[in-house]
Amino acid sequence: MTKSVFLKSALALSVAATFVSCSNDDEMPQNQSTLETKMTTNLYAPQTGGQGQPIGGAFTKFSFSQNSAVTNDSWDIAFRGTTIIVNGGSTIGITDEPARTGNASVSIASGTFNSVTTIPAAATFKQDGTNSYAIPNVSGSTGWYTYNSATNIITPNTGKILVVKTHDGKYAKMEILSYYKDAPANPDSTMPTRYFTFKYVYQPNGTNF
Questions:
Q1: What 8-state DSSP symbol labels residue 124?
Q2: Rounded to an integer, what distance in angstroms lies between the CA atom of residue 113 and that of residue 108?
Q3: pLDDT confidence tier of residue 34, bands split at 50, 70 and 90
Q4: Is the pLDDT score of 189 beyond 90?
Q5: Other CB atoms within 10 Å distance of the CB of residue 143
Q6: d(Cα 139, Cα 153) in Å, to the nearest integer?
């Protein structure tokens, strides 16, 4: 008799625990715990010319949703040397740039990667246009990097988080970590350049990261 009561009590507790677990799952926001920070290393962005010669060459196009470089129109951002363009707006007027077929734009947020958790105001997002980059291709606080003429080193600016509205209206936040192959902690001018390493979170739904 005692054994039977014990088994019934245990069964009741098990059912109750299962119910509570299911209820908690149902109440969890759909966007929560589904996002993943991904790392892209050594994305090569070569260019021709430079050092007083006309710059050219194909851009390396990247898709956040596919987590890879692409060759079709599904790209969100594209790289060539220090130049980064977005798949939105209109052509800038530089050699060999791809046509803009999407509606991508960029807002440059200040803070750490983890502190940027919401989508910035719509008015802060910019697209490429004639002689105008959504991500300024200049050294200093307004661009994504700083160039040290004494050491000939390009360093990504800390505290600059690029929030990208993708070509198809989703969102990603990214932080560029290195411009040198294999992302050395202390690069020098002899190391191979134009190899981007960056981390990002892609948000296919909702408005938060």
A1: G
A2: 12
A3: confident
A4: yes
A5: 19
A6: 11
